[in-house]
Amino acid sequence: MSAGSGSASREQGTTGLAENGTNPIDLGGRKDKRMKAAGIDQTIDQAFQPIARALSDVVFFAIRVGDAQLQLIVLWLIAAAVFFTFYFRFINIRGFVHAIRIVSGRLDQDPHHPGEVSHFQALTTAVSGTVGVGNIVHVAVAISIGGPGATFWLIVAGFLGMASKFVECTLGVKYRQENADGSVSGGPMFYLDRGLRERRLPRLGKAMAGYYAICIILGCLGAGCMFQANQAYVQFVNVTGGDQSVFADRGWLFGLALAVLVALVIVGGIRSIARVTASLVPFMALLYVGTALIVIAANYADIPGALSAIVTQAFTPEGATGGFFAVLVLGFRRAAFSNEAGIGSSSIAHAAVRTGEPLTQGFVAMLEPFIDTVVICTITALVITVTVYDPAFLTDGTMSGVELTSSAFASVIPWFPYALAVVIMLFAYSTMISWSYYGLEGCIYLFGNRRSAKLAFNAVFCAFVIIGCTTQLGAVLDFSDAMIFAMALANVLGLYLLAPVVKRDLDAYWQRVKRTPG
Q1: What is the reported pTM?
Q2: pLDDT tier at 48 (50, 70, 90 boundaries)?
């Protein structure tokens, strides 16, 4: 997940690496200070290595396209996005204004409708699970390897992904389960089970739903929890003295404090999570986008040239490795890992919306990849291209990932690296609380909506927050990362099978909208 999961780190088929090519949970000097505790970490890590390697080899299997390596899971996600864009007659364009009207509260705001949160809160919860560290580093890596032209294809893929989000989030609401306590549960587990049963494929639906639930539980504990906690910890240590920080060898203490902050939110369920993300996501976005616009404005004379480079080098890349196909594949891969369209995870958050019309949240969900990929990634690309971008970066490896982004901002705002650390910590925190809900819903599908099961899952999740700050389980993160993208295998197949249902509902919905005054 772009939000900073291990998926944010996959480049050219590598696994388990951060954007700068280092292990995402390795903190330099801290490693030396805790050598005595490394034995247990190593034993667990080595036990997981063959499992993680085998799963990653399958999920991230790549084929050669020209001079580029294309992972089949990316092709699977992008092909679905293209298909749904055409199948629903460019719903990502003709439904865009309608989506804004809904999320702004001008449509479909009956408080008596089933559900737990507003359209806006459901959107911010889902956005908090995708917007994150990946949006800071995805574009930087794409540009450092493929030049500004890779950004063009990243934007195209983000636009196409809006259609996939529309389908999966509509289904998430349509087939959600209303629980006895007034809460709702939804997402791929439920629409694969209920939807395919409706299509007379009950055994296939049950098997795919169970598979998805297991994947999201295991994936959320690793990439959605441990990795996020570690990223927050690393950034905190970096801004409090690095290796000399008093917290450099006290990951357990930071992890304990972070676990408490997470617990205070997630014990309240989706309503509590939605209230926090509704405040946190706009603040994070404004902080990052606001500083980015200052940098762009300071280099306004270079904006036309930057835009020209993004478009022209998408087709005739200069200095980029691998030529046209490599740049195209790079942009598509980064977008797929960024907005998670087709993976289905965010439909779990959208399913909690208060509405009597499932399609309304499908429209709102389209704004998620638009915000995540089209807006934030484009702004990041412009910041880099108008400031520090130089073709020399493509060959000498001077900077990549977060270093390149940080340098671009610091060229105008010297104190920005500190703001970047705050942004990353907030991104990590918001991702954790969102993904805790995703994993919890997988648990509810498998074990029922029992209070004891929910409390047990939340306790385990908080324990993994502490583990993420104190261990170096690279193979475990590789495993959980692969589990998240393995979800797309079942989810996308289910979307294809259920697309005619959504199309039928959409045609009827448009007819009702046309008959509605105003």
Answers
A1: 0.83
A2: low
The Cα–Cα gap between 120 and 358 comes to 15
| Lowest mean per-residue pLDDT among 15-24, 98-107, 131-140 | 15-24
Cα torsion through 436, 441, 446, 447, rounded to 10: 80
d(CA 108, CA 360): 8
| Helix (H/G/I), strand (E/B), else coil: 63 | strand
pLDDT of residue 388: 66
Confidence of residue 275 (pLDDT cuts 50, 70, 90): confident
Amino acid at site 234: V
Contact 102, 516 (CB under 8 A): no
Q: Give the H/E segment covering residue 71.
A: strand 68-71
State how far Cα 468 lies from the chain centre.
Answer: 19
Tokens of 55: 């799963």
Q: How far apart are CA 460 and CA 218, in angstroms?
A: 11
**Which contiguous run of DSSP H or E holds residue 136?**
helix 133-146
Q: Please, what is the Cα angle at 68 between 71 and 492, to 5 degrees?
A: 25
Unique residue bearing structure tokens 């014990």: 267
Question: 501-512 pLDDT, tens per residue?
Answer: 999 999 999 988
Q: Are 22 and 30 in contact (CB under 8 A)?
A: no
Phi, psi of 48 (to 5 degrees): -85, -20
State the alpha helices, DSSP H only, in 240-345.
251-266, 269-298, 303-312, 323-339
Between 141 and 303, name the one with better pLDDT.
303
Is residue 190 predicted with pLDDT exceeding 90? yes
Place of tokens 């899971």: 73
Q: What is the DSSP string of 334-384?
A: HHHHHH-TTT-THHHHHTTB--S-HHHHHHHHTHHHIIIIIIHHHHHHHHH
Q: Are 324 and 66 in contact (CB under 8 A)?
A: yes
- Taken in order 347, 349, 352, 353, is the CA torsion positive or negative? negative
| DSSP assigned state of 471 | -
Burial class (CB in 10 A: 0-12, 13-18, 19+), 180: exposed
Whole-number Å distance between alpha carbons of 92 and 166: 8
First vs last C-alpha separation in the chain = 39
Closest by alpha carbon to 372, among 348, 397, 340, 333?
340
Radius of gyration of the chain (CA): 22
Q: How many CB atoms lie under 10 A from the CB of residue 69?
A: 18
Alpha-carbon torsion 377, 334, 5, 444, what sign? positive
Q: Where does the pLDDT of residue 27 fall: very low under 50, low under 70, confident under 90, or very high at 90 and above? A: very low
**pLDDT tens track for 370-404:** 888 888 888 888 888 888 665 544 444 445 556 67
